[in-house]
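Technical appendix A lists one of the benchmark inputs used to test multi-chain prediction within the project. The record comprises two sequence entries:
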Amino acid sequence: MPGAGKGVFRKIVQNSGFSVVTMGDVVRAEVKRRNLKATPENLGKVMLNLRELDGPAAIAKQCVPTLKQKTGKMVVIDGIRSLVEVEEFKKHFPDFVLVAIHSSPKTRYKRLVNRKRSDDPLNWETFIQRDLRELGIGMGSVISVADYMIINEGSIKQLKNKIIQLVAKVLKDE
Amino acid sequence: MPGAGKGVFRKIVQNSGFSVVTMGDVVRAEVKRRNLKATPENLGKVMLNLRELDGPAAIAKQCVPTLKQKTGKMVVIDGIRSLVEVEEFKKHFPDFVLVAIHSSPKTRYKRLVNRKRSDDPLNWETFIQRDLRELGIGMGSVISVADYMIINEGSIKQLKNKIIQLVAKVLKDE
């Protein structure tokens, strides 16, 4: 969910030498290919159009060739938002595991308020609306069936330690 | 989610002297009131009928008077499955907090297989279908916006300790 700590996760695994494939980059690349500006509006439209053309797993499908090119013991996919995407990745990668990070709404709100630029303040209402948008496309179902869950209510340092431990555990278990 | 440890949670808080209101009991009471047998089929039909008559928060609404009669520092509601139910409870109880328990699908499956009677075996397919039914009514959204999350991948003893710690924390924080 927004503000749970996905960005820290990405940074840690990248710094540890693992590749990260960001699902949003597929949309950004397609916007560029269509000679459009990367405005939030165009990104949203192209995302919807890709799904119209190729179904709800469209973005995931486009990530598969990129993922197959990557080397190393583990590749991280950033930005899974629905169960159909999970199914798509599992089809191609039998060792696929799903990791979720949970923080309470109160904690996530505080983080997002601190992160926001002061000329564009965030209020609780807007925050809840954004949560509901993410949940509306099935994010909650993905989180609930995660193979590994990290609770992130403390400091970034604590989160970093949890992520490093988790990566070691995943590489050992799977 | 099924097999995550909800039953252990209920038992622990009851043994600690707190009241538990089980949402399924509303449906069971209504089935009895209508002079029907408490078969899974009748329970399912009456549940749907209550929602038809009084909207998706019907079961939650019927729990409110029972909850208000309870005394003690804390009352536990067992069986919340959608965000409208959360909203209903928040409206009546400003100190409402939402607790979720997470276990990986692999762990939950193992537990449910062990719990099942041998004449009615559970397979992975049936397990996934049951998960999808729960997620289909919005369970994933509820889990994702929990104020407190417990990870339950270990023993019952470990879970018990986590629950006791959580209850103490909630009573202190809220």
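The radius of gyration of chain B is 17 Å. The first helix of chain B runs from residue 6 to 15. Comparable benchmark entries are summarised in Table A2.
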